Amino acid sequence: MGGITEGFVGAVGRTPLIRLRALSELTGCTILGKAEFMNPGGSVKDRAALGILLEAEEQGLLRPGGTVVEGTAGNTGIGLTHICNARGYRALIVIPDTQSAEKIGLLRSLGAEVRTVPAVPYRDPNNYVKLSGRIAAETPGAVWANQFDNLANRRAHYNATGPEIWEQTQGRVDAWVAATGTGGTYAGVALFLKERNPRVRCVLADPHGSALYAWARTGELASEGSSVTEGIGNSRVTANLEGAPIDDAVRVDDQAALDTIYQLLWREGLFMGGSVGINVAAAVETARRLGPGHTIVTVLCDSGDRYRSRLYDRDWLAGRGLRQPDRTAAVAAA
Ligand code: PMP
C-alpha cells in the first residue's frame, strides 16, 4: 500500500522542504530548509547511519547479534542505535563528554552502551573517533561505522537527500549551503546537484574553531576561536568531504547562530539545534551575496530539544559569554 512504510528504516528520509518565510521576505530570496529533524531518530544522521549499516550488511560484515561501534557527537549514534534495535545488533557508542546531556542520556535510554571520553584533538590517539576504531577492531563480530571516512555516508545523501531537493524544487535551486561534520550531507548533496546543474552554487558554512573555512578559501587548514555548536566543524578534510565542489564559504559566529535559532523559534515556530543556526545564517549571507530572486536550500539538522539545557538556557549561555536573545526586542525589530 502506497502510504505505509516498513518500520524505522522505512521512515528515514523523504523529509519536507520548508520555506522560511521571515528570512525569505527579509532577503527577497526563497530560503528553504530541508527538515531533517523530522527523521524518525530526530536528525539528518539517520540517513548516514542507515546507508552505512545497509552497505555493511550487503558486504556481509554485519550478522545478527553483531555489534556496531562508532565515535559520534551523538546524532549518528542515536540513528545507529535505533537501527541496531530494529535489526538485532548491539550499539557501542564513544562520545566526547563535551556533548549535551540530552544526547548522551538519550543514547543510554535507547539501549546503547555509551562510553564518554575527554574531548582531545584528532591527532591524539585517544581521540573519540580513533578510540572507536580500536574498540571495533578488538571486539569480535563488530563493525566500525567510521562515518567520517566511510563513503557510504555521502552516498546516502547523493542517492536520496540530493534527489529529494532536486524534485522538491523542481530543479529550481541556485545555491546549496551546509556546515559539515563528517561532510557527508554537504558533499553528497553538492555532488548530486552539480551533476544536474553545474551552475548550482555550493557554499560551505563553518563555525569558529573549525579549520574548514580557511581551507575552503586558502587551501590551508587553520582555525581560530571556538564554538558551542555540536556536530559540525573539523580540523581535517575527511574522505567524505574530499573532492566535493565548494564555490564559496561562510563563517558564522555563535551569537549570530544563536540569534538565528531564536528567530526561527519566534517567527517560524521551528525549535532548532545550533548547527541549524550556522546553516540558516550562512544561507542568509549567501542570499545577500547573490542578491534577490534566488532559491537557496539548507539543512535543518536536528531539534532544539537536544540542547534545551544549553542553547535555550540563559545561564548556560551567559557562562560562555553569549546573550540569550530578547523576544520582545527581536519581534518588535522584525
Ligand atoms: N548538525 C548536527 C547537529 C550534526 O550532529 C551533524 C553530524 N555530526 C551535522 C550537522 C553535520 O552533518 P554531516 O556529518 O553530514 O556533515
The poorly predicted ranges are none
Strand content: 5-15%
Mean pLDDT: 97
Ligand identities? 4'-deoxy-4'-aminopyridoxal-5'-phosphate
Indicate the CATH class of the largest domain. Alpha Beta
How would you describe what is shown here?
It is a single chain. The protein is α/β, with parallel strands linked by helices and 334 residues long. The protein folds into 2 domains: 7-38 and 161-333, Rossmann fold; 45-144, Rossmann fold. The protein has helices at residues 7-10, 21-27, 45-58, 75-87, 101-110, 128-138, 152-168, 184-196, 212-218, 254-268, 274-290, 314-318, 327-333; strands at 17-19, 30-34, 67-71, 90-96, 113-117, 142-144, 175-179, 201-207, 248-252, 295-299. The strands form 2 sheets. A 6-stranded mixed sheet has the order 1-2-10-7-8-9, with helices on both faces. It has a 4-stranded parallel sheet with strand order 5-4-3-6, sandwiched between helices. Helix 4 (75-87) runs parallel beside helix 5 (101-110) and helix 10 packs across helix 11. The longest helix has 17 residues, at 152-168. The protein starts with 6 loop residues before the first helix and ends with a helix. The model has no long low-confidence stretch (mean pLDDT 97). It binds 4'-deoxy-4'-aminopyridoxal-5'-phosphate. 4'-deoxy-4'-aminopyridoxal-5'-phosphate is lined by residues 43-45, 73, 75, 179-186, 230-232, 273, 275, 301-302.
